[in-house]
Amino acid sequence: MLSQSDVIELVRDRLYPLFKAERERLAWLDLWMHWEHEPIDLPANASREQRNLRDLARTPWLGLVVASTSQAQVVDGFRSPDQLENSTAWAIWERNRFGAKQHPIHYAANGYGYCYGKAVPGEINGERRARLTAVDPSHAIAVYADELEDEWPAYVLHGRPYGSTWLMKLYDDEYEYIVSVGSDGGDVEFIEWRQHAVGVTPFVRYAPFQDLKGRAVGEVEPFINLAKRLNKNVHDRLLAQHYNSWKIRTASGIDLGKGLKEPGPDSSPDEWARYAAEIEKRRIRLGQSDMLVARDPNTKFSTLDETPLEGFVRVDESDQKTLAAVSQTPITAFAELSNVSADTIAEIRNGWAQKVAMRCAGMADGHAQLLRLGAHIEGDDAAANDFRSRITWQDLQIRSLSQAADGLGKIAQMLQVPVQALWPLIPGVEKADVDEWKQIAAEGDALTGLAGLLNEQAADEPSF
What we know:
Layout: H1 4-33, H2 48-57, H3 61-70, E1 75-79, H4 90-95, H5 98-112, E2 115-124, E3 127-135, E4 140-143, E5 155-162, E6 165-171, E7 175-182, E8 188-195, E9 203-206, H6 224-244, E10 248-252, H7 269-282, E11 300-304, H8 310-327, H9 342-348, H10 350-377, H11 381-384, E12 390-393, H12 401-415, H13 419-422, H14 431-460
Antiparallel strand pairs: 1-12, 2-3, 2-9, 4-5, 5-6, 6-7, 7-8, 10-11
Helix pairs in contact: 2-6, 3-5, 6-8
């Protein structure tokens, strides 16, 4: 157990400075992951009209990259390969409503590179139960003795802001220490301590992809410069569209100042303003059906062509393809493709499917670790030590239902795979649906057998 002075020193000198620096980095990533990222730089004297066009150019490209991965990650079970039913730890998942909480976990972990899950003892109807919580990475910092090898962190600092201070909890493997921290981290006040008695620091880190240096790489930070290029492309197109996307009529040989006396160099600003206003009144304003006629035979009319927008569109499409390639996001997420076969679309989505599978493997490790910790808290030793059970995922790859049915039908017919074994492979079908179908099929078989038995008995009865 740490002393009060040890807690204050640890928080003030080590953990809070790390927490503050990481929070600032995550705040920057959060802007790019959503829709409030840094705008394009404009001159200080930019007009309101130009600032509005700049704001219109901001597009959440990287949020789409994160969402395309996260939306394909939906957990539907936790079981051993040799078991048909879910592990007993799955009840902890359902009790803590992680069916809904998994989505913000996946979005945060894919976007920032990591997030946390927390499991602490609770109580329901007098029984000890595990309470699972999804933790925003900007509200916690975990430190490990070895980033790669250690399953559990040595310390975690977790809290929320209250006005100008943070109310935070420092966790180790046996206790939680509650402290108040000033926003600058210099004023740390010890409040109290409690024993959680979990046996490990009760936090799990979700890191879908972690390299051998211990860096948890998300789907935002590597692509920010490319997203800036895309925003600039949109901004340039909006400028051309707003100011130069129509033909301009011109006339030469017309003296708009004829009959007016031009002010001299010593004239007052008011005289120049009146002269300019009179010239403005004489400008030709045309409606759609107006015809230009000039009395002076030297007058010539012509037009200035509009700025073509096709070049801006092509550059934008090129950078979208680059973002799709380097982030392994299907180009169909950014733009519609025409005259493309189903096989070509499948090939386009192949890299994305491999990325999703890789990130699912990293995410599944975090979910399984959290469920084992929850089972340990509830005293379910068998589930807590079950390292064979694994997270199962719904198949959410977007495919034609008719194509899936055709493929699964051929597998059943040509490879003699039992039809019921193929039901979980139907796109969008959950395990609960499969269980219900199996029950209906079993009841149908029982009714069919009963009807057959009654028919046999009726056939054996003597006729009169």
